[in-house]
Predict the 3D structure of the following.
Amino acid sequence: MQFKSNNLILLFYENIPMNIYKTQTELQSFISDKMPETVGFVPTMGALHDGHLELVKKALEENEVCVVSIFVNPTQFDNASDLKKYPRTLHKDAALLKQVSDKILVYAPDAKDLYGDKVQSAQFDFGPIAKEMEGAFRHGHFDGVGTVVSLLFDAVKPSAAYFGEKDFQQLQIIKKLVEIKQYDIRIVGCDIVREPSGLARSSRNTRLSALEFEKSTLIYKTLKHVKNQWNSLSIEELNQYVASMFSDQKMFDLEYFVIANEETLKTAHTKSKKDNYRAFIVVFVGDVRLIDNIYLGKG
Ligand code: PAF
């Protein structure tokens, strides 16, 4: 029974005509025929959710052509099991995009089309922002992101590219990449999209059990509390509060909680009136790694 209904769903997806391009040559030949003034680009690793769709809607609003790439990039994973378990749902993704607009072009290459024969990272000097948080905990991650995003930019040739603020540090890295490679591409950061419970939307959420999904709202509740107490408590007191929230939780493993200067991303220990601050958190729920952040305000 289960088998039959799954097949029906697949059939349904397969019957929807979609603009899926497997190679950059095909994609470019279609785009160059249209001679658009602006191409908006949303790079993704698929398993699309409302957070992605908000980026796509903005790209559609602001550009003549909108391209969404779907590619699970091996060079940005430092953990083979995380890469293997990353959800891959191309047909469902394409069907979701089709509901938003049938004008969206989906670029879903294989590794060879992007990387050629050698699937490996280039090395970048993104400066101090790359050494903090994700840079410290995920070895080689930003070199992998920088590599694939520059390959994608070369393939798609966008005039603007859209990224969510859930990966706030990644967004700063991409801005730096554009500077280093001198791309003429406008980088647009978009607000975090949340579940009604406050949990940040993420492709990884699909790997949570119903109970884990429900309990993971603790992450956002903790961030909200930190924001509410920002003017009353010191950074040390806030750090202690967050550690205490996760210390006796069997379901969660707090990888890091950091209050950082929003511009330099350096960990802050004291507040300064002239700087803006943001709180960053990564929590493991079983083997699912969830990331979130919140703007706190000036010091
Ligand atoms: O944010 C993501 O989904 C990925 O890091 C990106 C930017 C698509 C590069 O693989």
User: Anything to note?
Assistant: The first strand starts at residue 20 and ends at 21. Strands lie at 20-21, 39-44, 65-70, 105-107, 160-164, 186-190, 252-261, 276-285, 288-298. The chain has a mean pLDDT of 94. DSSP finds twelve helices and nine strands in the chain.
